[in-house]
Task: structure prediction
Amino acid sequence: MREWNFMENSALAKTYEPKEVEQKWYDYWEKNDLFKPSTKSDKSPFSIVIPPPNITGSLHMGHALNNTLQDILCRYKRMKGYSVLWQPGTDHAGIATQNVVEKDLSSRGTDRHQIGRERFIELVWEWREKFGGMIITQLKRLGSSCDWSRERFTMDEGLSRAVREVFVRLYDEKLIYRGDYIINWCPRCDTALADLEVEHEEMDSHLYYIRYPFENRHGYLTVATTRPETLLGDTAVAVNPEDERYRDLSGSYVLLPVLNRPIPVIFDKYVDKEFGTGALKITPAHDPNDFEIGNTHQLERIKVINEDGHMNDQAGPYQGMDRFECRERILDDLKKAGLLGKIEPYRHAVGHCYRCKTMIEPLLSKQWFVRVGPLAERAIAAVKNGETRIVPSNWEGVYYEWMNNIRDWCISRQIWWGHRIPAWYCQECGEVIVAKEEPRVCPCCKSNNLRQEQDVLDTWFSSALWPFSTLGWPDSTDELKTFYPTSVLVTAFDILFFWVARMMMMGIHFLGDVPFRDVYIHALVKDERGQKMSKSRGNIIDPLEVLDRFGTDAFRFTLAVLAIQGRDIRLSEERIAGYKNFINKIWNAARFCLMNLKDCKSPSIEGYSLTLADRWIMTRIGEVAEEVTSHIGGYRFNEAASTCYQFVWHEFCDWYLEMAKLELYSKDQMRREVAQSGLQIVLSGVVRLLHPFVPFITEEIWQRLPHTEGSIMVAHFPQRSEFIHDDESIEETDLLKGVIGGIRNIRGEMNIPPRRDVRVVIDVKGSREREILKDNLHYITSLAKAESIEMVYGIEKPDSSATYVFGDIQVHVLLKGLINYGDERNRICKEIRKIEREMDLSRRKLANKDFLSQAPPHIVENVKERAELLGVKLERLNQNLAILEELT
RNA sequence: AGGCGCGUAGCUCAGGGGGAGAGCGCUACCUUGACACGGUAGAGGUCACGGGUUCAAAUCCCGUCGUGCCUACCA
Result:
């Protein structure tokens, strides 16, 4: 069964070496089918679809965080007994991929038009075969436990079928249409873009005041514009009907500068009287607002800029010029003609292509659109009524805001790489045929002279189907029945609209149910100064380099700890280095345990009397498991990871292991055996607790831990009920820690060398405390390095002692020859000042009648108790001080 | 222009009505048989500022300042 048993007895290296471990266990998991959903039908399903990375992509921090969180959830759920499907795959990334291959062509002195569409597509597929899987290999290095046997690609035959099905059905339902509208055109990518794909960037520009002479009288109407070159396509000048200045212009015309075309002055309340001159030039073919105004006033649309960014034959003398060159020339000509007024510096947002950052040209074009209104309505409702929960919930507002103001989605792209739109045009009668399969003849005129639409679909169109197309839709598959709706979608907010919103619309429309129950929105990863990582800034931390330097587990744990809801992550290498130390700490704790388990029996605590350390740590690990369970359930990854960190380092290592040493090094075989049992039980719990976060090191330890079976991946996540629970052990341990802490504090403050044993006298009144301390003296002796401990009651501060007051317990450390009275007095005075400040607060509260009458009783009680305790402590401290004063 | 955050130890950040927390860094001591990628102890904070609500505010409300991001068709 177990393949790596041969290593169990070999010594563990002093330092954890991730490289030797990671590849080995990843292969083992994959080979043993541990990433596949369970075939047992009694398990509840849990499913996640991966946000498919682009085939052009290389692992960046966003991927690393995103997939680490998904993997934590999946590993955790598997251990909790769910049948887990983590559905992986990649996205064909139309424009990005086409750009990559085109760049390659251009470096070889050719381009896609020379080689033709068919050959080009072939080349893209070849490129994809060669390089498209790179990111998958990288995801594996992260430890991602996806079911790779089910890997999908958005251009797969199955997914393409889903795309055609959806397109045809939406078309039949009149939710897809084709028409002439203003769209965003990227002259470099040569394609239309959706509104979302335009990034608005503030830029310094100018506001030009241009004079349009009146046709039939003297003078002119001055308009203000940022884009003088579009005036060639103006078909009106608009003013506000309520603008006193322009009241008398009704029915008049102005002459378009340069071209001298008469255009009407129209009235529209859209125009802002306050802006510029209150007169707005209208270019319906090159501006979305002007387009709308043009529609209401039935203005002609004159397109003057072509798709390649150059002026066309409507541009008169400027025909053939680049759009930016044209602007300069027009300004020159206007100036010469005396038609250019003032020029003001002006800052405004300009649209750029999100892929190539080229300035977007809004222009009139015939494109395909999705009518999203009706789809959005239901997608909004689904979140409103809780069918899908967005976590953290403040993103709901953003989601509603966008959904409520959504405009139709332009889905056609003038590129070659992608799903070709399943529409055919009859060359004889002009009929448009939309069908899943290529039609032979025109249903209208029976002609076979049909031409398929050249355009392909927006990549996000196929991504929108991802949660069901990957599960086999439109076929009614078992996977769909079992795993749809998926349990949770894990993603960053930057694709909330691009992807999440569209999946919601499509999932609800075609499956009748939401695509996921939860959407967990995680942070963006920024650099240590809070800036977005980008190549141009040069502040990228390469996750692959991190993996090499620090190991996967350290990296994953760092990401988990930093994954705070609603706040971006500032990643620094120091931070990762810090958690690498934690990984090493785990390693060494395990190393210590395993060294002491060489001769151990199968763990059992039946019939043995357990030590305080055992009862305490088991109680604690049960509580911690419960906390971590709750944190993961609420997607509070940082809390879950921090809780683990705190527990493992500062309870398991700092206290439990130190206490266990006494038993393990005992000559009494029975005591040793009990301790070994405890050690096995607790270490097993610890690695299982940690596994979802740090899968590799925990598997390595698990495999070396005696009396475990199979992979840790299929072990159970620890839960409270599997451990004994003993509340008293917590109190008892707190008491011990307090006393030990007191002695250590004195040692530290008094600079007593750790080597040097000290004699301790403990003055304790309460009989229970007394019993507890008495029963556990050996822990104090050992952990505080005491030579001897005497338990007394009601004595004065001994000669040459330093005293630590813990509640009403006084711990006197005898320091003959080690202490000078001045130091001890300073120490006590410092303590007294601190306590007095605290006392003061409590006294003030208790003196306040309103507090006593209105605060909840338990709070009042609390303050009273505190005051009492502080009082006792203060009294003791003062007594001790008095004694010192006498001596000096 | 609107919307959403953030401002807490030197740094990075948790917390979120009832006596300020972590990691890193810093200081001192320590190579004790898991770990110097370690141990023990310690220093360090008017919780941005101003109001308000409350018996009680770092925490809730309003405002100011600073800062980041998102959305948007004012030329």
Observations:
- The longest strand of chain A covers residues 198-213.
- Residues 233 and 546 of chain A are 55 Å apart (CA to CA).
- Residues 857-887 of chain A form the longest helix (31 residues).
